[in-house]
Amino acid sequence: RSADTQINRPTDLQSFPTYRFKANGSVVVFDGFLKLYPQALSEQKLPVYSQGEVLEAEKIEGIEHETTPPPRYNEASLIATLEEKGIGRPSTYAPIISTIEERQYVEKSPSTGSGRFAPTTVGVAVNDFLVKNFSDIDDIPFTVRMEDSLDEIAHGKREWKPMMKEFYEPFAKKLEGVKNADRVKIAVEKTNENCPQCGSALVIRVGRFGKFLSCSTFPKCKFTKSFEEETGLLCPLDKGKVILKKTRRGRRFYGCSNYPACKFAAWKLEEIKRPV
Asked: Is the peptide bond before 47 cis (omega within 30 degrees of 0)?
């Protein structure tokens, strides 16, 4: 049982700012497992206060506390959230995940841990654009309503033409107004490398086939080269660096940087045990 106590100010301190003090304490009202394990008992009784009582502070200290942010989604938690919100169907979960990965909206960076998704600069730019210009469509309630309407059409309970007309007419007008909107600038990641052609700094950009290194003065200087995302692990065969790679179909895997001399590859980081 816990108790909160509000301490009121004396009448002669009415000109001072108002503060609210909270006192936490607990007392045992039912033994439960403590009957067999009394060592776990940690009782903190509260003193008895009376209204209008003047209290003296023995010590005042400021303690900073930050709330831990919620963990990023992985495939399992993303699918669980889609199910909870009523978005998609079991047959569409895999295409949803593959789409956001293939379009470079998210990535499974080794730094996120446990295969969790992290937004890319492209994903952040696309999200900001949609929220700014299509906030009534880019939200969960709209998606749920749309899927419910499509289900009604599939079961013959609703005609598809009136439903699509109701959606498309206002959407088409908004689309016309957005055509002249400012282009979204995709942020770039800075590196410590310099361009071998002009000496300017190299930056990491995101293209159709993933990340690559490019001169920061582009299009004035068109130098580019491939970008190797290191995992901080060593190849168990020749101790080369293990880097992130992609198959021709865009599926991510981890391989040795010494390829083709070393053909080691793994689908998951957990399969590689040797840290640098």
From this structure: no
Cα–Cα distance, 28 to 141 (Å, whole number) = 45
pTM for the model: 0.59
SS3 content of the chain, % helix, strand, coil (to 5): 30, 15, 50
For the chain, how far is it from start to end, CA to CA, in angstroms? 50
Strands (E), 100-158: 106-107, 118-119
When pLDDT is averaged across residues 77-88 and rounded to a whole number, the result is 90
Instruction: Output the DSSP codes for 50-76.
Output: -TT-----S--------PPPPPPP-HH
Residue 14 has pLDDT above 60, yes or no: no
Rounded Cα distance between 241 and 210, Å, is: 19
Residue 6 — very low, low, confident or very high, per pLDDT cuts 50/70/90? Answer: very low
